[in-house]
Records
---
Amino acid sequence: MSLLETLRSVQHTLPEKYKSLTKTEMENRIFEIKQDLGSKLFIPCHHYQREEVFQFADATGDSLQLAQISANNREAEYIVFCGVHFMAETADMLTSNRQTVILPDMRAGCSMADMANIHQTERAWDVLQSYFGDTILPLTYVNSTAAIKAFVGRNGGATVTSSNAKNMVEWAFTQKERILFLPDQHLGRNTAYDLGVDLTEMAVWDPIQTKLIYEGTLENIKVILWKGHCSVHAHFTVKNIEFVRQTHPQMQIIVHPECSREVVARADLNGSTKYIIETIENAPSGSEWAIGTEMNLVQRLINRHPDQHIISLNPIMCPCLTMNRIDLPHLLWSLENIIDGKETNVIKVDEETARGAVLALERMFKK
């Protein structure tokens, strides 16, 4: 089921009473419920969550890490996932049937994941097979829907994370001559380039036009990049880097590989969210950093490391808007529904989809 279909099928409107509560009232009530439910409740929080929610996390991390931590927590009956829809889907697929995964606000989606739906993907696959035959292996970033993960799993491919993308792309080339990388073209391009694939050997699939964008001979194509991107990381630009170089010449620039190739090429360092956090944590006092990733995380790093000079690479960045839909009122609402015996905004992936998606995930876990 797509996110749009899910939204149409559930009641996700926050009751009016939660809009009149003060921040302190909501925080106190959440603390009470957490204490009452004890080990029956587990709240994983993604690094990009707003601070008012992040403070209640039982575990923090990136999307796949949190799903795995949730799966290893056998005591929890309710997993209230503070992230976005595809993350909660993965948690549901990896946890046991007796555990219930809840997303506090069903509107918390991911624009990147929504840039590749199963209908577009199956149509693209048919066209690409007609061009290249059985020479393509599909890979999908974990920032994708369960349906896309299942498609990849059924066709011999695997999922990747920003941390292991290089290893997975290397593996993919041992399986087939070409890869189709979904849904983030920038992570795919940056990863393939770092592994020695020339930009002239990469094409882009446009799912809206149902068209392969490439200038040259088809036989030279090694990587087919889905035309998708992260709406947050797309806002870091070469001009941002040039400004930092001019105004803070001693400052190091570190960015996420979801940024464009031009930005990554001009940065000093690039890597996953975990890599960025660990780099800042291990940096010496007095070091200077411009960070190109989501603003909630950047602000958290600024607050935690006052001995370093840290700024956002783009000074007018907004937090991830869909991730920020998880707020105190929605978190409290979901928890009170559990107390009242109601299970609102439950994330449940159907068995057939889960089977294919888990296959794609397991191929990654084995590498």
---
Amino acid sequence: MLVKFEIYKDGEYWCAEGIGVDIFTQGKTLDELMDNIKEAVEVHFEEDIQYGKHITILSMSEIEVAPIG
């Protein structure tokens, strides 16, 4: 199973919103956010994991690039 997240910065926090799945989490750093995503997926899909289902997490982010010129 593939679970996708959109990652974006909202003020002081990094946020992750599930795409096609009702999961949202945040963290003050990207490392904290990644840990929180893993934990949220484990909780959300606890039963599937118990039955041996493999879950892959994919994150997509918007990164602002400085203007050229």
---
Amino acid sequence: MKHRDKSQPQESLLQDQRAQQFLLISAICVAITFSVWQALLNNFSVELASFKGTEIGILQTLREIPGFLAFGAVFLLLLLKEQYLAVMSLAILSIGVGLTGFFPTSYGLYATTIVMSIGFHYFETINTSLQIQWLGKKEAPAVMGKILSKTAMAALVTFSIIWCAMEFLQVPYWLVYLIAGILGCAMASYLFIRFPLLPQKSVQHKHLVLRKRYWLYYALVFMSGARRQIFVVFAGFLMVEKFGFSVENMAMLFIINQIATVWLAPKIGRFVGHFGERNVLLVEYVGLIVVFIAYGLVDNHWVASSLYVIDNIFFAMAIATKTYFQKIASPEDIASTSGVSFTINHIAAVILPVFLGMVWMISPAFVFYIGAGMAVMSLGLALLVPHIPKPGYESLFKSQSRVASA
């Protein structure tokens, strides 16, 4: 009996270590494959697929549709365990990337993009669920920060290799895509073989779950998706259109972003763990208000570049939203709610680019002022996050009503 008591914590520690290794390797796999797809897309689509603005718009819309339909991952859990679904999603992502270079046509690129996007978005949905389930509430922010830092390093190395391969060796697009796809499939196979099914801490619902008490989390996720579109679509476009940034200039910004993330992500993770989700979210949204207003006013390319890097750093603070949900969620709701929240996050991705694109034609500054307004709304939501969130105390309204009733 004494031997069991001593070995049980050791066995649990070993399982936690293996879970963290699985999460890290799978995240690095995504960083490598998606970085290759993203880094080459614009040049490949223009030079080989003869894309114009219309085709690029269609492709980006198609890319976001699987994210909007991410709730479908819940129903696949009727057939597969979450861990195996994550591995299968990595394989699909890698296959989509590996095939991209062989189909340099409009419909070919649309098709491979959809395949890639299904794998990417379904993995991200399941990965969020597994992180929340496998990581302890106290350690989760720090571990998530470390994983984010190491994946940024993987993306940085990948981008540097691509730049050298294309600049000095003139490696053809199809070969770079193929190598990334093969490497991704190899990493997915390694995860399948090397990591037998890790035990689930709670049985997950196999149907869609929408709970009234999660409303604040849903709202935060939706606003996060809206903010992401302004950065991904319009911040980079501002750098090119207004300040005339070349491919090399944008590549340098990307490298600086990754270096900043490598250094800051672990610190942000520890910051979340020490100061709490509410305070981190308040810092994030106050910062975004300033950044978006500055985007609308800036006339200096050095200032604009600094804003672009600062804007990207705020993405690391999304850790706080994940750990907030971890603290308020019923364990059996995590997988289903992760799928639903990913769909909510992508509602903005389907709607906003078209609307804000029309606003851009009137005044680019207005796009960022609208973004600042969204950040103000997000700040209001963050003020409703309790200092110590937990089931039954999901929002400040709920906390105050409990106190009053008591």
